[in-house]
């Protein structure tokens, strides 16, 4: 599911195009959300970039790992974790998204000296971000407890949307050979960076196609218990998977995410 713990990119450089490099959450209550994730993952928070309004970057042991921003009061948008996929040219990527049947909802726009971004959706409606790094490369560390472990697109069928992502980001794919498991792994330069899970009719009607963010934890069961104690709730109880023990929970505002203890 994930690589060994590492830094933002090879030797501190930017992430390779197509690689999930950041995750961000837009919420209604900044203080309560920071308290929840700070307690759960040990995050500390610093403000910025100012271009994004009320926005903070979560830090873990001195490394930036995620962003949390405030939703405008007049915008009734779903509260959900959004992955950002790296790009060398966000304008070109945005145009390719449109040409391939996707939609660009925000941007491209400049986020101060940090970089340039766009927020888009694929033809199935799943929302993702595009990030062209400048001063801010993305997550400074991954694969350790409290940091990003994996990103997975949950959709009706993997094949139906895989060509979109292959064309836009140049992914190579590897299918899981199984009669009852519809899954593709997306690769950049020969390494797995994300997955597409086709769930057919099991796709939640209230969410539709969506990207699921996985955070690494030291103990899945303890993390689930703590999430509930902090006001979250369980969406799928802890269970064993080929990648390790995993569970899906929601924070107090309803944003779903998974916690995993990756088998190494």
Automatic annotation (TrEMBL):
It comes from the Bacteria. Residues 147-262 form the VOC domain. InterPro entries: Anthracycline_SecMetBiosynth (IPR052164), Glyas_Bleomycin-R_OHBP_Dase (IPR029068), Glyoxalase_6 (IPR041581), VOC_core (IPR037523). PROSITE patterns: VOC. This is VOC family protein. It comes from Streptomyces apricus.
């Amino acid at each position: 599911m994930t690589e060994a713990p590492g830094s933002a990119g090879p030797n501190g450089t930017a992430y390779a195009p197509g690689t999930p490099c950041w995750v961000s959450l837009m919420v209604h209550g900044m203080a309560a959300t920071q308290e929840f994730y700070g307690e759960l993952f040990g995050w500390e928070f610093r403000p910025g970039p100012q271009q994004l309004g009320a926005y903070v970057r979560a830090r873990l042991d001195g490394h930036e790992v995620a962003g949390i921003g405030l939703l405008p009061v007049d915008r009734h948008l779903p509260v959900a974790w959004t992955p950002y996929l790296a790009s060398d040219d966000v304008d070109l990527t945005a145009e390719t998204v449109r040409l391939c049947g996707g939609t660009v909802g925000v941007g491209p726009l400049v986020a101060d000296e940090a970089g340039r971004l766009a927020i888009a959706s694929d033809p199935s409606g799943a929302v993702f971000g595009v990030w062209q790094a400048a001063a801010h490369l993305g997550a400074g560390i991954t694969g350790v407890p409290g940091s990003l472990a994996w990103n997975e697109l949950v959709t009706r069928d993997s094949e139906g949307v895989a060509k979109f992502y292959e064309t836009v980001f140049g992914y190579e794919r590897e299918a899981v050979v199984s009669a009852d498991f519809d899954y593709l792994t997306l690769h950049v330069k020969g390494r797995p960076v994300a997955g597409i899970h086709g769930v057919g009719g099991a796709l939640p009607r209230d969410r539709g196609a969506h990207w699921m963010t996985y955070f690494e934890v030291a103990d899945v069961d303890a993390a689930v218990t703590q999430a509930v104690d902090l006001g979250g709730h369980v969406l799928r109880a802890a269970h064993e998977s080929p990648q390790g023990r995993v569970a899906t929970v929601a924070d107090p505002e309803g944003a779903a995410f998974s916690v995993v203890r990756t088998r190494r």
